[in-house]
């Protein structure tokens, strides 16, 4: 009986892990296709137009100016994707430092701002847990920009004696549908839920002042 229950548990874990891995692959594939590949496709059009404008210096110069601008967008896309794959912190960084750097790197000039604040005395957290908390905050920021169309995101770390509370709040445009959105998030098996379960953290969703408020609670051992 115990063996059967253990086997069922292992199968369920394997199933959920596979689903989440598939979701990550789909999300990365969609971002590559919708963002980076489309930007690169524009350069093929630029090359065709450059060939046709070879005898028109004014048009060639205008095309080169546009290409420089769009190429900067390509660089930003590559950086954004690389940040998801490789966190920008080392084992010597504190969680406060890591999350503050993350907030700065996730800002989109002219499109979205990410504000960071921390209160209380920072507790000691293992590098393993730090990595998971970093990824959780990273995904919450990403979701706020992508799904809530947020202009501003506030990331707050609240250090208590034996608990860390992380809040990620946005001013997304879908405020009137927050209740429906929260209900979907609670039922969804995603990387946020998997990572929080691994380290024993709890992620909950609430109405914020202007949009969605995600709260991460982690007991410091």
Name of the level-1 CATH class of the largest domain: Alpha Beta
Task: Please summarize the sheet with the most strands.
Answer: 5 strands, mixed
Radius of gyration, Cα only, in angstroms? 21 Å
The residue fraction in helices comes out at 55-70%
What series of H and E elements makes up the topology? HHHEHEEHHEE
The N- and C-terminal alpha carbons lie at a distance of 33 Å
- Helix-and-strand structural type: alpha+beta
Structure description:
With 221 residues, this protein is α+β, with helices and mostly antiparallel strands. It has two domains: 2-85; 95-219, Histidine kinase-like ATPase, C-terminal domain (Heat Shock Protein 90), CATH 3.30.565.10. It has six helices and five strands; from the N terminus they run αααβαββααββ. It has helices at 2-52, 57-85, 95-106, 127-147, 178-187, 191-199, and strands at 113-119, 152-159, 163-170, 202-207, 212-219. It has a five-stranded mixed β-sheet. The two termini are 33 Å apart.
């Amino acid at each position: 009986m115990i063996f059967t229950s253990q086997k069922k548990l292992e199968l369920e874990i394997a199933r959920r892990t596979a689903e989440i891995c598939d979701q990550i692959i789909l999300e990365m594939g969609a971002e590559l296709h919708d963002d980076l590949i489309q930007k690169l496709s524009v350069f093929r059009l630029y090359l065709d137009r450059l060939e046709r404008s070879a005898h028109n210096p004014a048009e060639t110069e205008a095309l080169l100016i546009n290409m420089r601008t769009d190429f900067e967008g390509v660089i930003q896309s590559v950086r954004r994707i690389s940040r998801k794959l490789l966190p920008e912190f080392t084992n010597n960084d504190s969680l406060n430092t890591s999350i503050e750097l993350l907030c700065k790197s996730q800002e989109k000039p002219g499109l979205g701002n990410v504000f960071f604040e921390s209160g209380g005395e920072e507790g000691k957290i293992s590098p393993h847990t730090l990595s998971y908390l970093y990824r959780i905050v990273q995904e919450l920021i990403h979701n706020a920009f992508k799904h809530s169309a947020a202009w501003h995101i506030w990331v707050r770390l609240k250090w208590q004696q034996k608990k860390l509370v992380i809040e990620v709040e946005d001013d997304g445009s879908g405020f009137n549908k927050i209740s429906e959105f929260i209900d979907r998030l609670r039922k969804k098996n995603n990387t946020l839920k998997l990572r929080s379960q691994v380290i024993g953290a709890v992620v909950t969703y609430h109405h914020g002042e202007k949009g969605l408020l995600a709260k991460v609670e982690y007991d410091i051992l």
